[in-house]
């Protein structure tokens, strides 16, 4: 091997080593970029999930509206609907006669949470509401237990009793609905599950009173999708 060949081979080796080092650096940068993208993407997806789980109405709504004689929102009359006469006293909704207050939802899985005080057997949380004669409702019986009831043509055709939901004075309710499944939660536990597709496309829910007594509905929140049931709330 001549002396002149050795420098040429050394130059070639150095060029190859430089090329390999540059390639390794490029691979490292690409891998780092993919890692950051996945990490930030996961955070974005988590943030989106948290946003979707937020209640539709902020701070329990409170019924603090400009219209104190009813529940119609002046800025969006299609959102709240009223039937009968309601008063809003101290941020709480109270009927002065037979009345129903409803909100239209957009469909899909959701939940309705409310606190009911001074309930009577004619007090009800209503959902899948088509009209006054065709809907689902959650209400207390005269002897105390609450039931989920399906009304068709003004007649009760299906009743499911809750596990241990009793009383009239101060009851917190969470009704979750998803497709043909309805879950009722209260007192930190699942009270009952009903699987029934009747009126599954009805897109109104809310609360009603037959005018006997003066029940109070407070802290109403609508959730789309429903809050995580793992918390056991309300």
Task: Spell out the blueprint of helices and strands.
Layout: H1 5-52, E1 80-83, E2 86-89, E3 92-95, E4 99-104, E5 110-117, E6 124-131, E7 134-140, E8 146-152, E9 155-161, E10 170-178, E11 181-186, E12 189-195, E13 204-209, E14 216-223
Antiparallel strand pairs: 1-4, 2-3, 4-13, 5-10, 5-14, 6-7, 6-13, 7-8, 8-9, 10-11, 11-12
Largest sheet: 7 strands, antiparallel
The helix/strand order is HEEEEEEEEEEEEEE
Q: Roughly how much helix do the residues carry, as a percent range?
A: 10-25%
Identify the overall geometry. elongated
Distance from N terminus to C terminus (CA atoms, Å) equals: 88 Å
Spans of 5+ residues with little confidence (pLDDT < 50)? 36-70, 72-79
Cα gyration radius (Å) = 30 Å
Oligomeric state:
single chain
Q: At the third CATH level, what is the topology name of the largest domain?
A: Jelly Rolls
- How big a fraction of the residues is strand? 35-45%
CATH homolog superfamily of the largest domain: Exo-inulinase, domain 1
**CATH architectural category of the largest domain:** Sandwich
CATH class of the largest domain: Mainly Beta
The main sheet orders its strands as 1-4-13-6-7-8-9
Tally of domains = 2
Structural class: alpha+beta
- How many distinct beta strands? 14
Keywords: Membrane, Transmembrane, Transmembrane helix
Transmembrane segments: 16-36
